[in-house]
Amino acid sequence: MDWKGRRESSNVEDRRGMPGGMRAGGLGLGGLLLVLAISYFTGQDPAELLSGLDSGAPGGASQPVGPPATDESSRFMRVVLGDTEETWDAIFRQQGQQYDPPTLVIFSEATQSACGVGQSAMGPFYCPADRNVYLDLTFFDELDRRFGAPGDFAQAYVVAHEVGHHVQTLLGLSERMASARRGASQVESNALSVRQELQADCYSGVWGHYAARKNMIDTSDVEEGLRAAAAIGDDRLQKQTQGRVVPESFTHGSSAQRVEWFRRGLQAGRVDACNTFQ
Ligand SMILES: [Zn+2]
User: Fold this and answer.
1) Least packed by Cβ within 10 Å: which of 30, 99, 147, 200?
2) Could you give the angle at the alpha carbon of 267 between the alpha carbons of 152 and 216, nearest 5°?
3) pLDDT averaged over the chain?
4) CA-CA distance, 132 to 166, in Å (whole number)?
5) Looking at 67-81, 124-138, 215-229, which range is the least confident one?
6) Residues with CB under 5 A from ligand 1 (ion)
7) How many CA atoms lie less than 13 Å away from 121 in the CB half-sphere?
8) Statement: the pTM of the whole predicted model exceeds 0.85
9) Of the candidates 2, 8, 134, 162, which has an alpha carbon nearest to the alpha carbon of residue 82?
10) pLDDT in tens, 11-51
11) Distance in Å, CA 218 to ligand 1 centroid
12) For residue 205, how far is its CA from the centre of ligand 1 (angstroms)?
């Protein structure tokens, strides 16, 4: 990716090394992989999962925005987030709406969110209740080593996916989904979750479409993104963690579906190409 020298977002809260961070504790490597698999990728609604893990520890939710970091990986995140802001701002304005960007909270190990205590082992997540994206940068080592999806655009795709959930919240979809899932069976609820996740993949692709137009990414970056989408499909993760594939338990979609919807967004560059609920 050609990202250096581009605008860095100021909507980043750096909580690394802050008091109020809590140790995840007790998770071995196997446990880490399992939690990864059941939470961010193949798991339940992050809000449900997080509230289940909430230990009621004192919050860091209203921490002030820290000074700009100088390390390269967080600067990269700021640039990616800044570019999603420009893209979604333009798309919302075309539709006569206003884009209110999320805050990216960079944390280490654990932090408080309005959805409960976020832990790095969960992977990145979006909390609709405080409209923040939560990210521990060490997740990207996992993405590279365990899931075989290295590269800066693979990381950008993950952030853009979480921003995609924020877009869903702004468009009212997250709320409609939550109420639809309340009366639904587990299987129905999982199927709704897959559609919601695939739409976030597609929105990530929409962002990629505009990033390509600005020459921020090239074809090798796109391949990285597609590889990342395939690496975190439910079928592939289940095979890795359980040795078998149970389609009814999918919550994010198969590798093939994730690749397909990311690609659709990427090619079309339009929100209406992302109707996964049709
Ligand atoms: Zn998601």
Assistant:
1) 30
2) 35
3) 84
4) 8
5) 67-81
6) 197, 200
7) 19
8) no
9) 8
10) 999 999 876 554 444 444 444 444 455 555 544 444 444 43
11) 24
12) 13
